[in-house]
# Entry
Amino acid sequence: MTGWGRTAPTLADLHRPVDAEAVTELLARPAARGVIARGLGRSYGDAAQNAGGRVLSLTALRAVRSFDVETGVISVGAGLSLGDLARMVLPFGWFPPVMPGTSHVTVGGAIAADVHGKNHHREGSFCDHVRSLELVVPGGERRTGAPGDGVFAATAGGMGLTGAVVEATVQLIAVETDRVRVDTERARDLDDVLDRMERGDEGYRYSVAWIDCLARGRALGRSVLMRGDHAGRDELGAGADGAVSEFAPARVLSAPAGVPSGLLSVPAVRAFNEAYFRHAPRCERGRLEPLHSYFHPLDGVQAWNRLYGPRGLLQYQLVVPFGAEDTLRAILERLSGERRPAFLAVLKRFGGGRGLLSFPIPGWTLTMDLPAGDAELSPFFDELDTLVVEAGGRLYLAKDSRLAPELLGRMYPDLERWLELRAELDPHGSLRSDLARRLDLVHTR
Ligand SMILES: Cc1cc2nc3c(=O)[nH]c(=O)nc-3n(C[C@H](O)[C@H](O)[C@H](O)COP(=O)(O)OP(=O)(O)OC[C@H]3O[C@@H](n4cnc5c(N)ncnc54)[C@H](O)[C@@H]3O)c2cc1C
# Structure
């Protein structure tokens, strides 16, 4: 098993329980090397794997227990993907409250990483919209968590290390159509994009900037800013029937297997970035775009992670607080100065987080993908880690595969409180993942 980055594969016993009762049975007697839940394996690193132990793939838990079409409150099995949830509720005028950059994420995975979307600056992360969750803990006991209690605070962003979420009740958001009204503008450099986002983001539900990490000098940080909101029925124009039913890419291509390493080289990424920047409109208002292509352009290419070749990719996602813009600049200077082929880098603004280990803090989050396998990458990222910590920032565990354990507590000041709660829920330290071992989160009393 690997994460989406396809680095550090390990072997485990994979079980596919068909319902919550089967999960309870499996957790009643955890394996010697522990157990961890797995969703659709879209975390990039080693969070959903457990070398030599047991992994519970929970994607069969897809049942809808209740759905109030008047209020948009839905209770679903934790294995349902956000894409399937969207497809199911859209015809009734509802949509998932938070959509990460892929729709192939389960509700359980969205809670365990407390995922964010392009609306974090206004609406927070996934767990801000979860009314309650059902957790099975080692020993087989079932616990209910709700905002304000310890089970919830430790499980939101807790990377599966408090138990297996089997069901959740989520408040959906109301939409009238299956389109997003998008405004696009180009920003000439980092100051320009930060300024535009600071001044304008509150006027939009969704905001994201694609950033050219290879641009240097005066063009450092040049970006394409894409912001939008759900389009109203009256915006579809005459003749449109106001249908809100479609949530699917028109066509899904598949990335070929056996792509050699090195395809995404510096010249290739530079050429792509140049073309992307030049192709984007300087300023365009009100383009109507299908939901899936605004939220998940990459879902149109199945297994696109194979394009990085056999050595895989590392995603690096950091957040630094507002006021630490110089750190962002320093990181971009390092990336472009060392000619790192950072592909598909994005910049977003965050509001606050909810869980004790939730990633978001108010500030700027920067995400980049880099090909794995370069021996110099590790010291390079170590240097970036230092810059991030010194600025009061942190890395996102759902993307991580390499952080040093001694930095975790500095990045997550609520770690001790989280460890106490985790010890109450899992006193024998049966919940284990490769990430937990790497970051010293495995404990035994
Ligand atoms: C292309 C792409 C774009 C992405 N964009 C974003 C983004 O914009 N924002 C963002 O926040 N994230 C983003 N992600 C990361 C992704 O949303 C998270 O890693 C998410 O947790 C993956 O969910 P999953 O169902 O695949 O879980 P997995 O990757 O299988 O597991 C992730 C973690 O969740 C735990 N887990 C899974 N299911 C359960 C359960 N039922 N109970 C308890 N724990 C469980 C696992 O133990 C593991 O620790 C992106 C990933 C990809 C590949």
In short: Residues 356 and 414 are 6 Å apart (CA to CA).
